[in-house]
Amino acid sequence: MKCKLSWMLALCIFPIEASFATVEVPVLPDWDRIGMAGIDASSFLYQSTNRTTSSTTIQAAIHGKYDSKNFHTQGDLQAYAFLTEPQAAVESQEAYISTQKNLLGNHELTLGRRYQEWSKLDHVWDMMSLWSPRFTWDELHPETIGMTGFFYNYSSRDIQWTVFGSFLRVPERGTPTSLKNGTIASPNPFWNPLPTTVTINGNPTPVVYSLSTPPLKEILFKGSLAVREKWQLPSGFWESINWGLLPVNMVQMAAEPFIQGSNLDVNIRPQFAMRSIYTVEGGFDAPSKDWDLWFSASREKPFQYQNQSNWLNPIIVPATIVSAGTNVQLTSNFWFNGSALFIHEDAFTHAGDLPNVNLQLPSRFPLKQGIKIGGDWHFTDYTHANMAWTQDLLQQNHLISVYIEHHLREKSNITLGAGGDFMVCKSTNGWVGQYYGDDRLRGWFSYAF
C-alpha cells in the first residue's frame, strides 16, 4: 500500500511557500536571473484501479541572484501542476540574503531558507530527511530543500562552524490530498488510497476516515536550534559533529480506531513532533579527487508527541541511524557510488486487544535497512546519465532507476531527458514495496530563458 499522508495537512496550511537561504558566488554588483519551463510525462507499464496509465506535469521555475558590495541575495520559485488534474504546488528550494566576505571576513550571516549539507546521509538517502527537509512532488525522486531561519557561519582553512536558529516550522510538502466522504484521495499517480474495507474477526468491515487537525499555532510556531562543526585537513581526512533541537520534517500520522456499529471509524491524527538529534560523520576525500569514503551515525530522541497503545501505528520512537558509503572514479567518464543504511527503532508495545489491521501509514523512516549502488556517466559536456539500484533488505524489494539527459549544445536552451523506474518486489510493504506495480517510463523537455 502506498499511503502518503505526510504532506497532506501541510498543503492545506501552506498553499504557497516562500523563504530564504545562501551559496558562494563572485561579488558582482548586478542582478542575474534565469527562468525555466518544461513538461514531464510518465507512462506506467501496468494498469491500476488507483491511477491512470499516464501522468503529465508542467513545470515552471525562476532563479535569481543579486550581488552588491556587502550583501548577496539569491532565491528561486518553482511551480508544478498536473495537466489532467486541477492540482498545483509551489515550492522554493532556497531564498535568502547573506553578508559578503568583505563585510565580515570569515564570518557570514544569512536570513532565510538556506540549503547546505548538514548530513552526508541526507544527500545519499534522499528519502530520509534526517536533517534537511524535502519537497516530494515526485515521490521516487524527492528534492532536498533548505532549512528556514537565521544562520551564522564561520570558516577558516581547516574548520567550519554553522549555527542555525528559527521560530518558524515549515513541514514538508508534496502533491495535494483531500478528505472526501470519509476517504482520502490525491492526483499523485503514486498515491494508493487507504483501504475502504478491512477484515476484522473474519468479517469484512467498512472503514470511514476522519482527520484531527491541531491548532495552527502549534504547527507554525516551534523554535529550533542546530550547531555543526566540520574539520577538514588538506590530507583529505574530515569529521563533523552536529547537534540539534529540531522538528521532525515529515508530518507524522497515527490511526485511532473506533468500532461504530458495523463500521470501523479511523481518526487520522497528524503529529508535529520535535526531537533532539546528534550526528557524527567522518571520512576521507582523496586529494586526487577520484575517490572518497564516509560514515555517518545519528541518535534521534523525539519529544512533544503522542503514542497511544490503542493507536494502529506509533508516531515516532527513539532511533539510531548508521550509514556508510563511497564514491569512486573508475574511468575518465564514469563514477561508481555505493552505500549501506541500518536503522534501529526502539520497541513500542501496542494494546493486545487491537484489531489485526495494518493501514500502512507512512513511517518516520520509510526504509529501515537498505543498500544502494549506482553510477554516473558523463559522455560529453552535454550528455550525462545515471543509474541507481536500491534494495530494501528487510522486505527484499528492489528499485532500479535509469536516466539520461542531453543538452542541445552550447547555444541552445533546450534540455531533453528520458528514463524509467522499475520495481522488483516480494511484498507491498516498505518504501519500495508500496510502489509495486508503478513501473514507469518517463521523459521530459525543458527550455531555459
Q: Can you characterise this structure?
A:
With 449 residues, this protein is mostly beta strands. The chain has a single domain (118-448), classed as Porin, CATH 2.40.160. The protein has helices spanning 8-13, 101-104, 120-124, 216-220, 430-433; strands at residues 31-44, 54-67, 71-82, 88-91, 95-99, 107-114, 134-136, 143-144, 147-155, 159-166, 173-174, 178-180, 183-185, 197-200, 203-211, 224-232, 237-247, 252-260, 263-271, 274-285, 291-303, 319-331, 334-345, 369-378, 383-392, 397-407, 414-424, 440-448. It is globular.
List the SSEs and their pairings.
Blueprint: H1 8-13, E1 31-44, E2 54-67, E3 71-82, E4 88-91, E5 95-99, H2 101-104, E6 107-114, H3 120-124, E7 134-136, E8 143-144, E9 147-155, E10 159-166, E11 173-174, E12 178-180, E13 183-185, E14 197-200, E15 203-211, H4 216-220, E16 224-232, E17 237-247, E18 252-260, E19 263-271, E20 274-285, E21 291-303, E22 319-331, E23 334-345, E24 369-378, E25 383-392, E26 397-407, E27 414-424, H5 430-433, E28 440-448
Parallel strand pairs: 7-11, 15-19
Antiparallel strand pairs: 1-2, 1-28, 2-3, 3-4, 3-5, 5-6, 6-9, 7-8, 9-10, 10-16, 12-13, 14-15, 16-17, 17-20, 18-19, 20-21, 21-22, 22-23, 23-24, 24-25, 25-26, 26-27, 27-28
Features:
mainly beta; 4-stranded mixed beta sheet; disordered N terminus; Porin; 449 residues; globular
N/C terminus separation: 41 Å
CATH class: Mainly Beta
Number of domains: 1
- The DSSP helix count reads 5
Compose a concise summary of this entry.
With 449 residues, the protein is mostly beta strands.
